[in-house]
Automatic annotation (TrEMBL):
Record keywords: Alginate biosynthesis, Periplasm, Signal, Transferase
Protein name: AlgX/AlgJ SGNH hydrolase-like domain-containing protein
Subcellular locations according to the entry: Periplasm
Taxonomic path: Bacteria, Pseudomonadati, Pseudomonadota, Alphaproteobacteria, Rhodobacterales
GO molecular function ontology, one term from the record: transferase activity
Alphabetical list of InterPro entries matching this protein: ALGX/ALGJ_SGNH-like (IPR031811), SGNH_hydro_sf (IPR036514)
GO biological process: one example: alginic acid biosynthetic process
Xref: SUPFAM superfamilies: SGNH hydrolase
Coiled coil: none
Domain AlgX/AlgJ SGNH hydrolase-like: 236-350
Any Pfam family: ALGX
Protein species of origin: Meridianimarinicoccus roseus
Length: 363
């Protein structure tokens, strides 16, 4: 009997060793599930990881930064070897952190391209409500890439987002039925599946202009913007500072930073986003005209090339051309070829070289 009591007491006592072993096993399980599911949830990750691992030795002419709207530029048709480093739903804090680290790692492109959505000037993926533990838009992909270059760097001090990316399985980007998996586009710049030069495009939905499509995507996007503005009414100041940091770094490294301010959107979706801001009572706080002016001023002051969307895209007419859109906010390869052809004459010479030329008849 004493032996039995003694054993019971021993098993009930706290054991530091047991606690450590349990914690290590739990964290290993979480980390393992994160690694196993990351590529399925974020299909572009293998190519992005390959790119940042080799960025100091890759022979490249351009990098594309920011969010997924960068699929609208066909670097291959400009004769540029492009390393795409854009990430789904990326904000400017993620973009600045990644750009800084790849430059430190030896990236030396002639050009850096950003397709800037004015709504990104009001976006902070690290913003949280008081009751919310997880950030509204996952930073898994951005922290995943930064883990290769700066493993202990939280983006904009977002330690909770860093811990989430480190230990929790990655979250998908809803709505999964509408934001499609990215598939490699066959072409001369993409050979291996993990090629850092691989170009991607979004799958074509049957009708990019259907109201349900606009509403469902807006259900995901607008809470990020609304939450960011309510958490920080001065967010425009902070995102402008991040843009300035990107532009200053590019200038210091002799990189031609090209920013297209504004993005092609299906007309119905553009209207849906505006209506959501009005319904939330944020029509004055989320002022896209002010955001565009602020971004333009900040970038031009640092010597970046700023190209307004109106110089290459007629939102009144072109936004109606749904055959050019894969979904309501990304162009197809054919639509991107049209966009690129219009963009090409506006690109600056890099390092005193010739302007990139768009081959006649290219699509």
């Amino acid at each position: 009997m004493p032996s039995s009591i003694s054993s019971s007491e021993a098993s009930g006592r706290f054991s530091p060793l047991r606690a450590v072993v349990f914690t290590v096993l739990l964290l290993s399980l979480l980390k393992g599930s994160a690694w196993l599911t990351r590529d399925a949830v974020i299909p572009i990750m293998p190519t992005r990881l390959e790119a940042v691992r080799r960025i100091g030795t890759l022979e490249h002419d351009s990098v594309s930064l920011g969010a997924s709207y960068n699929v609208d530029v066909r670097h291959d048709l400009l004769g540029l070897r492009n390393v795409p480093l854009w990430l789904p739903v990326a904000d400017l804090f993620e973009t600045a952190a990644l750009f800084e680290q790849i430059v430190k790692a030896g990236a030396a492109p002639a050009y850096a391209f950003i397709m800037l959505d004015p709504y990104q000037m009001y976006q902070d993926n690290g913003a949280r409500d008081d009751w919310r533990m997880l950030n509204p838009a996952s930073r898994d992909a951005a922290h995943g890439l930064l883990s290769v270059l700066a493993p202990f760097l939280p983006i904009d001090g977002d330690r909770a987002g860093w811990l989430e990316a480190l230990f929790l399985p990655p979250r998908g980007i809803p709505p999964t039925a509408l934001i499609r998996h990215l598939l490699p586009v066959p072409g001369r710049i993409e050979v291996p599946d993990r090629s850092p030069f691989a170009r991607f495009e979004f799958n074509k939905v049957p009708d990019p202009a259907v109201p349900e499509h606009a509403r469902e995507v807006a259900d995901f996007v607008t809470p990020i913007i609304i939450g960011s503005v309510r958490a920080d009414p001065m967010i425009l100041e902070r995102t402008s500072a991040e843009l300035g940091r990107i532009a200053d770094l590019a200038a210091a490294e002799g990189i031609e930073l090209v920013v297209v301010v504004g993005i092609p959107l299906v007309a119905r979706y553009r209207a849906e986003l505006a209506a959501r801001m009005i319904a939330a009572g944020l029509a004055q706080q989320v002022d896209l005209t002010q955001a565009i002016a602020r971004a333009t001023q900040t970038l031009e002051a640092a010597g970046a090339t700023v190209i307004p969307l109106s110089a290459v895209w007629d939102t009144g007419a072109d936004d109606q051309r749904t055959e050019w859109f894969a979904d309501n906010r990304h162009l197809t390869a054919a639509g991107a070829a049209i966009f690129t052809r219009r963009l090409a004459p506006l690109l600056p010479a890099a390092g005193g070289g010739l302007l990139p030329q768009y081959p006649e008849g290219s699509d």
